[in-house]
Amino acid sequence: MTNREKLKDLLMDVFLIEPSEFRFDMMRDEIESWDSLGVVSMALGIQETFGYHMKPEEAVAIKGFQQIIEILESKGIKFDE
Amino acid sequence: MNKPEVWPLENLSAFSFGKAAVWTLDLLREKVTGRFPLDPIAENATPPIGLDTLLVVGGGELMDRAKYWRATQGPNTKLIIIPSIWGSGAENSRIAILNDGGKKSIFIGSEYLPDVRSVWPELVETIPEQFVAYACGDVWAHALEGFLSPVGSDETRAQLMDVIKDISDLPVGKNAAWFEFGARACAGQAASSVGLVHGIAHTLEGPLRSKYPNQNMGHAKLCSIFLWPVFSLNMKHSNKIHEQFKIAGIDEQLVINILKSFYDAEIYHKILPSLEEHWRLILRDPSSRTNSVLVRPSYIEYFKTADFS
């Protein structure tokens, strides 16, 4: 499974998004369950899946899924497989 | 006010209540009014306006109703609470949960804290052994999920670490020491949040009470039954718990043995179809979303296939 597929599975699980509705360009304001607890779940899932411990202020500042890829790539996790 | 004052029962007996009433469970009324000769309020009634003091003797639900009543109807009334059993810790918490026909409303704020809490150890003798064991499980669920919560602070973790160590040495059963540990566990988890055990209990309590009206499918029982299965799931998906226990000096194997002692396979398998039916709602519960590991939709398979005996 590629990192892109892992991230897609994770985000669908965290925010309870159906596969048919998922897009990597989704933004926070499109997702009802992306509230403060959604931020906690997302940070927890990223740590469990990619081993990267996101700082609270970093997780809160994320506005869309693409930004998560950028953060993880900046930590050496590759998404261009 | 951050915490209620703790008064010994003897101080309470000598206290000048002024215009007062005692609100208690119907089954305890005779005993309670024998010791505190105040005007009794029936369990399902509400107190009159204008009291100087309201003494409440009961379980979590009655304590929470009293806290809500005082905050909204009697802000000048002194609220004194004596829990009939430990577990909910409502006597020491800023949270009031009202249950209106299966729908729960949660209120949080210092206005929901009682002024005084006390312990009447003798009351626990009126409670059946099995209920007492579930109440101990409830204390464990608060302490453990609060300690492992990803939104807890170092301070709440330290408080709950102490509670876990203390209750690890305390046998499950009728021992008044559980009152204090229950109150401390509740105060800690109120500041840090809880996890999937509570997400399951909050979601299933209403449906299970309707489905099995005579089988006490309450909060404490559900927490007790799911403590070990949820802890087992969490450990399967994260090494973090081993590390947290190691750093805190908590005996992991001892905790596992205690959690297993609350598990009942027959009751668990009776509940399992409801767990599956309501799984999506459980995933959305705020407590589930602050579980120590991310709760993923596919994890329902673990609950259906693992052997927790």
Helix count of chain A equals: 4
The chain pair with the largest interface is:
A-B, 13 and 15 residues
Order of helices and strands of chain A: HHHH
Shape of chain B: globular
Low-pLDDT segments of chain A: none
Oligomeric description of these chains? heterodimer
Strand content of chain A: under 5%
Q: How far is the first residue's CA from the last residue's CA of chain A?
A: 10 Å
**Class derived from helix and strand content of chain A:** mainly alpha
User: What would you call the structural class of chain B?
Assistant: alpha/beta
Shape descriptor of chain A: globular
Q: H/E order of the elements of chain B?
A: EHEHEEHEEEEHHHHHHHHHH
* Largest sheet data of chain B: 6 strands, parallel
Q: What's the count of strands of chain B?
A: 8
According to DSSP, the number of beta strands of chain A is 0
For this entry, give a set of tags.
heterodimer, A: 81 residues, mainly alpha, 4 helices, B: 309 residues, alpha/beta, two-stranded antiparallel sheet
What does this structure look like?
The complex is a heterodimer of chains A (81) and B (309). Chain A has 81 residues and is mainly α. In chain A, 53% of the residues lie in helices and 0% in strands. Chain A contains four helices and no strands. Chain A has helices spanning 3-15, 36-50, 56-60, 65-74. The model of chain A has no long low-confidence stretch (mean pLDDT 94). With 309 residues, chain B is α/β, with parallel strands linked by helices. Chain B is 51% helix and 12% strand. In chain B, strands 1-8-5-4-2-3 form a six-stranded parallel sheet, sandwiched between helices. A two-stranded antiparallel ribbon of chain B has the order 6-7. In chain B, strand 4 (53-58), helix 3 and strand 5 (78-83) form a beta-alpha-beta unit. The radius of gyration of chain B is 19 Å and the shape is globular. Chain B starts with a strand and ends with a helix. The model of chain B has no long low-confidence stretch (mean pLDDT 93). Chain A binds chain B through residues 10, 13-14, 16, 33, 37-38, 40-41, 43-45, 48, and chain B through 150-151, 237-238, 280, 283-284, 286, 289-290, 293-294, 296-298.
